[in-house]
Amino acid sequence: MNCHAAFVYSDDLLGYHFHEDHPFNQIRVTLAKELLEASNHLNSDDIIKPRMATDDELKLFHDHEFIETVKKAGGGKLSENEGLPFGIGTEDTPMFNGMHEASAMLVGGTLAAVEAVLEKEYSHALNLGGGLHHGLKRKASGFCVYNDGAIAIKYIRQKYNLRVLYIDTDAHHGDGVQWAFYDDPNVCTLSIHETGRYLFPGTGSVNERGIKEGHGYAFNIPVDAFTQDESYLQVFETAAKQVAAFFKPDIIVSQNGADAHFHDPLTHLCISMSIYEKIPELVHQLAHTYCGGRWIGLGGGGYDHWRVTPRAWAQVWNVMRYGKVATGNIPEHWLEKWQKQAPVSLPNTWHDPESTLPTIPRKAEISEKNARMLEAAMKYATNLK
């Protein structure tokens, strides 16, 4: 099934760059885009350009004082002591020149995706430069300055009055977006992530359900370290289907972090590329079942820039545009170009070979624990009070 989909891109999205040794590197976006082009799955007619988010748009979620502090940091006018209360100048989120403009461009890319779907007759839109889900109202956090997902959902609520389902499959809990809508019954958040026992940000327990009118509209499924495909897929498919049926959204926003893969250097989950095919396929199905196809996809985490994130993110687009994932071999000319720069051997197939999958001794125990966590979380999808 071919769908009318928009791919948000310009080189301006690459300006969000802390320093050469920082784990967050936008080369992932370039690699994914060029992989799609090399596969003849993306052409110039599919691409729409991002725009700079305005201060008023940023203020849909962030405080004025925080925005002004980011501007000072990006202009070299902020001291370390001034920045730290706002999470700026830390090891995770160091200052860099043009910080405000680069961050606002990522937000504007997500807003352009929203406008493409809600004003320009696209069914789906993808901004791989977005997905900065840890940004808080008054604080940068976890590589994230402005929270484009939270701002975009606020924008959808204010301008279009639609009920939004936010699905976050990053290995890290989608805390910033959850807190932004913790008391809002018109935004339902579903985050499937590695337990916070060992991983930043340490939140996302099954008991975080929302407050006031929003109680019952936050869903969290923290899965155990070393979770593999079968258990992850059971959790994801069950949760996404039940939460969508419970909430019946008008539009879906998905954050597609690719850091739960077994190659990722920052997390402890062990899923393969197979799951990064199943995730967009199911979200696509839910979007057409409940939302008339309306689906905004974002990037997010993913710190094996070479072997994992380009393939995972390219598959989101393949499903958005063509209704199916790519299979077989990676194009030779993409491999030839990028292998010269890559510090690891690039994969030559879209799938992970069976021989590369790790063996986990506690697999049965982990799967049982995840099944109990899923059951605990999903009882709230039917027993809302």
Instruction: Report the strand count.
Output: 8
Span between termini = 39 Å
CATH topology: Arginase, Chain A
Rg value: 19 Å
Percent of residues in β-strands = 5-15%
The proportion of residues forming helix, as a percent range, comes to 25-40%
The total of helices stands at: 12
Mean pLDDT: 96
* CATH level 4 superfamily: Histone deacetylase domain
Strand order of the largest sheet: 2-1-3-8-7-4-5-6
SSE pattern: EHEHHHHEHEHEEHEHEHHH
Structure, described:
This protein is of the alpha/beta class. The chain has one domain (5-381): Arginase, Chain A (3-Layer(aba) Sandwich), CATH 3.40.800. 37% of the residues lie in helices and 10% in strands. The protein has 12 helices and 8 strands. The protein has helices spanning 27-38, 55-58, 64-74, 80-83, 99-119, 148-160, 175-180, 229-247, 275-290, 309-322, 332-339, 363-378, and strands spanning 5-8, 47-48, 124-127, 164-168, 187-194, 218-223, 251-255, 295-298. Strands 2-1-3-8-7-4-5-6 form an 8-stranded parallel sheet, sandwiched between helices. Helix 1 crosses helix 10 (309-322) and helix 5 runs parallel beside helix 6 (148-160). It is globular, with a radius of gyration of 19 Å. The model has no long low-confidence stretch (mean pLDDT 96).
Q: Gist?
A:
This protein has helices at 27-38, 55-58, 64-74, 80-83, 99-119, 148-160, 175-180, 229-247, 275-290, 309-322, 332-339, 363-378, and strands at residues 5-8, 47-48, 124-127, 164-168, 187-194, 218-223, 251-255, 295-298. With 385 residues, the chain is an alpha/beta fold.
